[in-house]
Amino acid sequence: MLVTESKKLNVLFILHLPPPIHGASIANTYIKESKIINSEHNTDYISLATNTVLSQTGKGSIRKAFKFLSILGKILKLISTKNYDLCYLSLTASGPAFYKDLIVVALLKLANKKILYHFHNKGVALAKQNKVNDALYRFAFKGTKSILLSKYLYSDIQRFVKETDVFYCPYGIPVSTVCTQKKPKEKSSINAISLLYLSNMMIEKGVYDLLHACVLLKNRNIPFVCNFVGGWTDITPEEFDKFVEENDLSMQVFAHGPKYATEKLNFFNHADVFIFPTFYHYETFGLVNLEAMQHSLPIISTHEGGIPDVISDGNTGFLVPKNTPEAIAEKIVFFAEHPEHAEAMGLKGKLRFEEYFTIDKFEQNISQVIGFAAKQSFQI
């Protein structure tokens, strides 16, 4: 639907943009570069990011303090000189970054602006419960609206937010312009199921759970190859290699570090099953699952965050309990012994992706939510 200039809303987006690269910054980049959102509304953007690499998260520095003061100056200038119908804020749910973002919230509230939060993480329910935090969360949420990625995430904020003040909007990703058809395997590996993990090499993302599942597969003489793709975080290359060596997995398990663009797509194209056994306490959605679905891969993941809204258990993949290498191994064995089911589930996953999780769907939903939220009354 075309929006005439007179009907366009003035919207200020205050969000976390790369660097560093993570799920939230990727989603926010999609919003900033959206033709749909930027054509239907008059938009301004300010990045809240003060880190350049993930390892800086939660660590203070003089440089970061000055950068944040500069960000506050930009926000103050814009809200003082422009009449915004809505201010969209990518609010951090907890921790030091929440208290930092709260200063932005206070500025917007002092300027009597309508605020729409978009939560790319979770942690409100896990935050330390005391009178101070209780008061700060109540202040933050009073008279605001919120976007959550899934109905499964409402429990995180329900103590402070009525569900009538919540919009649900799942992520979407761009349709790949590179061939997403799986390439035939080399003859030498024709009987080995190809497994793929693609995310940060982090303990809570389930790296060791998958490694232990690989040990179980080897003990059962299941032919497999498992590729780990992602940047190193709280697991070092040396620690990973030590586990592989000690468990005699050097012929089956490989770590490749971070890969992008065509290199990353090649891993999807050569995989049979995608595995994302996360139990990350801030996990909300798992964008990598959408990439796997786009490449017609069946998925083994967990019930963490909003993932049950993405993966249809038993239909497009399997959801297993967190921290259960045995359950992961059992599902891998099922796919190894029933490749026709793996292929069928992967194709169903791709259809589900095309119906619900494309970037166009995401942008349309966000634009509609902005329109709805701006027209609603806020008790600021």
From TrEMBL:
**CDD domains membership:** GT4_PimA-like
Tell me any Pfam family this protein matches: Glycos_transf_1
Q: Where on the tree of life does the source sit, at the highest rank?
A: Bacteria
GO molecular function term, any single one: glycosyltransferase activity
Note the InterPro entries from the entry.
Glyco_trans_1 (IPR001296)
Please give the SUPFAM superfamilies that the UniProt record associates with this protein. UDP-Glycosyltransferase/glycogen phosphorylase (SSF53756)
Give coiled-coil spans as residue ranges: none
Tell me which residues make up the Glycosyl transferase family domain.
190-350
- What's the protein name? Glycosyltransferase family 4 protein
Species per Swiss-Prot/TrEMBL record: Pedobacter agri
Lineage summary: Bacteria, Pseudomonadati, Bacteroidota, Sphingobacteriia, Sphingobacteriales
